[in-house]
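Data deposition worksheet. Section B asks for the primary sequence of the deposited chain exactly as it was used as input, without tags or linkers unless they were present during the calculation. Section C holds the resulting structure in token form. Section D is free text for depositor observations; keep each observation to a single sentence. Incomplete worksheets are returned to the depositor.
Section A, Depositor: J.P.
Section B:
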Amino acid sequence: MDKRFVWATEDIFKDTEEWNRVYAEIEGKIDFSEFKGKLGNAEDFLACMKKQEDLGRVVEKLGVYAMMLHDGDTRNSEYDALVSRVTTLSVKFGEKTAFI
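Section C:
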């Protein structure tokens, strides 16, 4: 296929190795327990919202990359695995932030 008709996923992540590194990094940061019971304080609330936004953007970026690879070649089981992993990460993120 002509390269101009293929998504430039390398603009999102260089490759799946980088995607895996960022995934592991974010997976280790999805903990919002320090904010439970403290959202009545304006400073804590702002810090929580900033963390949620920052991590949420990265989770979304991971998802977009995985889905683009998958949609570009639905026969590739590695891409299926990336989609499954980021779906699981998104669920975890939702669970950890549900109290907000």
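Section D:
DSSP finds three helices and no strands in the chain.
The mean pLDDT is 95.
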